[in-house]
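Field reference: sequence -> structure
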Amino acid sequence: MCKVDFLICGAQKCGTTALDFYLRQHPLLCFPSKKELHYFDDDAVFAGGIPDYAAYHAWFAPEARHRLLGETTPIYLYKPEVMPRIRAYNPDMKLIAVLRHPVDRAYSHWNMFRARGENVVGFREALEQELAIMAAPENSDASGYTCIRRGLYAQQLTRLWHHFPREQTLILRHERLLAQPEAVLARVCDFLGMPRLQGITARRVHAYPYPEPMAEADRRLLLDCFRQDTEQLQSLLAWDCSAWLA
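Structure field:
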């Protein structure tokens, strides 16, 4: 076990914490003590070219029973520079992503910052600021709010598949992870080539009430923002995304 074998790479606010929680119960999987190592998105680590991966591996303490190493950092799917770094590290890496209704994901994203006390603007203003950034010629994925851009899943998956074959990726639906965790985990274990987990008890992780529901005008704005990407996602994954478009 000289390299990390799989990553839960995205998307943020889509159930990655719950999936991480479930998989940590698997006796054959070794996870680091810390969720979200943020190794492959740390520009300083890669500033000098190919890094010494010892600092990354130091997070893992595999035991004799462990068969695979894995970690969860949901920003990996989003940042364009990350996948080439992962491929250079391990071209056989298996990558798992969970996708959620992009409108709901966007509001959850903003509320996460609100709960942390990091919000300085309201939700609508955050969306308008981001749309202005996206419309600018010097558009940067690293700048400003990313409530919208992180929900453009088709763009991110297309980029992922440019660096990794589709058979090394598993794309899951957030709503099915919530409703049928045992069935979803069976798919994950099969994908990883591991025995299936038994007796899973559903658990909500990082679920908290919002102070108020999303305004209908904001929902309509976001539906328009995501429509083209979601339609493309339907074709890419052969998913029925009608509920995401309604």
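Note: The first strand starts at residue 6 and ends at 10.
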